[in-house]
């Protein structure tokens, strides 16, 4: 049976997506995000990707703004 939207697993995944996205926008690499979330580098990248996809679906203008911020931030660190 699928988890409800408020199940602990769903809530934890949503929190990790949010944190991963915040860290990525702040200019952190997936290698830096992974230990902050207690996951692998690959999973950290998935959380960022999932977070962006959900954000784009729910609030497209905000997603575009976050993408622009991330690009600017990454440019400063690269």
Concise structural overview:
It is built from four helices and no strands.
Could you characterize what this model shows?
With 78 residues, this protein is an all-alpha fold. The protein has one domain (9-77). Helices cover 79% and strands 0% of the residues. It has helices spanning 8-25, 30-37, 41-58, 60-77. α3 packs antiparallel against α4 (60-77). The longest helix is centred in the first third of the chain and has 18 residues, at 8-25. It starts with 7 loop residues before the first helix and ends with a helix.
**What is the CA-CA span between the terminal residues?**
45 Å
**Count of β-strands:** 0
How much strand?
under 5%
Helix content: over 70%
**What is the chain-wise order of helices and strands?**
HHHH
The quaternary structure here is single chain
Radius of gyration: 13 Å
Form type: flat
Mean pLDDT across every amino acid position: 83
Stretches where pLDDT falls below 50 for ≥5 residues?
none
The number of helices is 4
Our count of domains comes out at 1
Secondary structure elements and their pairing?
Blueprint: H1 8-25, H2 30-37, H3 41-58, H4 60-77
Keywords for this entry:
78 residues, mainly alpha, flat, single chain
């Amino acid at each position: 049976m699928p988890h409800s939207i408020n199940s602990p697993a769903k809530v934890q995944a949503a929190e990790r997506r949010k944190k991963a996205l915040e860290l990525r926008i702040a200019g952190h690499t997936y290698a830096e995000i992974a230990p902050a979330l207690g996951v692998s580098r690959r999973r950290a990248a998935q959380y960022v990707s999932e977070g962006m996809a959900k954000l784009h679906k729910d609030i497209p203008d905000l997603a575009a703004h976050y993408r622009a911020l991330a690009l600017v931030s990454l440019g400063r660190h690269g």
